[in-house]
Prior knowledge:
Layout lengths: L11 H13 L3 H12 L6 H13 L3 H14 L4 H13 L3 H14 L4 H13 L3 H14 L5 H14 L33
Helix pairs in contact: 1-2, 1-3, 2-3, 3-4, 4-5, 5-6, 6-7, 7-8, 7-9, 8-9
Amino acid sequence: MTSKSDIDGFETDELLALARLALESNDLEGALHKLKGVVNAEDAPAEGLALAARVYAQLKLFDRAEKLYQRFLDKHPDATLERFQWGMTRFEGGKAVQALEIWDVVLKEQPSYPPALFYKGLVLTQLGKTNEAKQVLDGLLKSVSADNLYFTRAKELLQAIEVGRVPEASGARGGNGGTKPGTRPIPPDPYKTEH
Length: 195
């Protein structure tokens, strides 16, 4: 795609390439500056919408991220990663039940998708539905290899449940992952890594 953009005379494909480089360098400001020119167009490319949504989520501007994920999913309704991340914006924005609804859609399409299984288990735990959470987390442990990040985190969360250290009901990640001291079941940044 080589359509013209308003930012410094760069074309859309150039801005996307520069935004990807900025994200690889963890330059959120630089990435956002480039992506704003891309996503403000009515015919914004899907990749630009997804990248900008990730940047907004990392900046904890969850409402903005949600809108861009929704625009992206209008174009690519079967995109698992972006649908999962859309659910994360709901979760981190304090809308855990809405996040569960989104992750249930992901899990209907891909029943063993590790991030959705883990976070579903986490939210169910926070909602006091520990038996359901244990079933989900046990299913996760059976569906991934032991070297998978979510295997380790699911095992830690199950252990925390067993000893009564249930994660707090807040969705936002804190210094210790939004959990009580001594546990760390939440992976560090679901918007940075490909799942």
